[in-house]
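Consider the tokenized backbone below.
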């Protein structure tokens, strides 16, 4: 899920990594960035997979509450700071082991910022069983937050609450 939903949002950082690397090691730099980025998501993914084994996460109430939590998280200053951190850059050494280290560190830093920014939304998508409605809605909310020059917090809030409503209705109909 992290690769499908979060890598498109990291493309600008991948471009920065490629542009700041020497031509002959550009592919190695991108691989280092992606390794650091996905490693941070892997650690969180293992913890969430363990949480997903709990019985209470398999009802429609869990994603409904998760999307409400995600909507509330959108309004916090911590979320805004994390969203800004997703677009930070770092200097990269040109050659040697320091260049590899810098690329890994840059990927890990961006990955950690993205986790901090999106954790409630991704958790709600996980509780939804990675259903297409939850994933498409989560991707739309992420796109509303990250891609325009000016974030659309109100639209993201409405979309997240709409996803919560979908799962509340599904819960009521069962």
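A designed sequence for it:
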């Amino acid at each position: 899920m992290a690769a499908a939903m979060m890598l498109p949002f990291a493309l600008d950082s991948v471009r920065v990594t490629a542009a700041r690397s020497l031509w002959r090691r550009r592919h190695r730099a991108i691989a280092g960035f992606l390794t650091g980025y996905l490693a941070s998501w892997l650690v969180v993914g293992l913890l969430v997979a363990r949480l997903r084994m709990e019985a209470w996460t398999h009802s429609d109430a869990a994603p409904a509450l998760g999307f409400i939590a995600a909507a509330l998280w959108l309004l916090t200053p911590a979320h805004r700071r994390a969203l800004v951190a997703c677009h930070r850059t770092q200097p990269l050494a040109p050659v040697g082991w320091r260049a590899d280290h810098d690329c890994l560190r840059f990927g890990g830093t961006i990955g950690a910022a993205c986790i901090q920014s999106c954790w409630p939304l991704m958790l709600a998508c996980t509780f939804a069983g990675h259903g297409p409605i939850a994933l498409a809605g989560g991707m739309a909310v992420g796109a509303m937050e990250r891609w325009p020059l000016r974030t659309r917090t109100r639209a993201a809030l409405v979309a997240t609450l709409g996803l919560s409503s979908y799962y509340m209705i599904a819960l009521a109909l069962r």
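The chain has one domain: 2-173.
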